[in-house]
Amino acid sequence: MAYTPHQIPVDKTALITDHLTLVDIISGRMVTQVPAFMNRDDMRSAGMMGLIDAANKFQPEKKIKFKTFAEYRIRGAILDEMRKLDWFSRSLREKQSNLNRCMAELERELGRYPEEQEMADKLGTSLDEYQKLLGQVSHLGCVSLNETLDRSDSGRSFQDALIDTHKGVSPASILEQHELTQIIAEVLEQLSEKEKQVISLYYYEELTQKEIAEILQVSEGRISQLHSQALIKLKSKVKKDII
Question: Which of 28, 137, 149, 160 is most deeply buried (CB count within 10 A of its CB)?
Answer without folding.
Answer: 137
